[in-house]
Amino acid sequence: MISLKFNLLFFTCKFSFLNENAKNNISHKQVLKSLLKSNIKKSASKEADLYNLKKLILAIGHR
Known about the structure:
It is built from three helices and no strands. It has helices spanning 2-24, 26-41, 46-61. The protein is mainly α. α2 (26-41) runs antiparallel to α3 (46-61). The chain is flat, with a radius of gyration of 18 Å. It has one domain.
């Protein structure tokens, strides 16, 4: 019973954190979506893929 309560508490805290994090990172999600779309369009060029990967890493680092 204690394990069940602990798991429920952990899940509730984790969900609350993820929900708050999602509210704060709406623009971050939009940046990632646009990068993925542009990456798909430019997948024929290795330079474009490297450039998009660099932008993705920078976007994740600045959140």
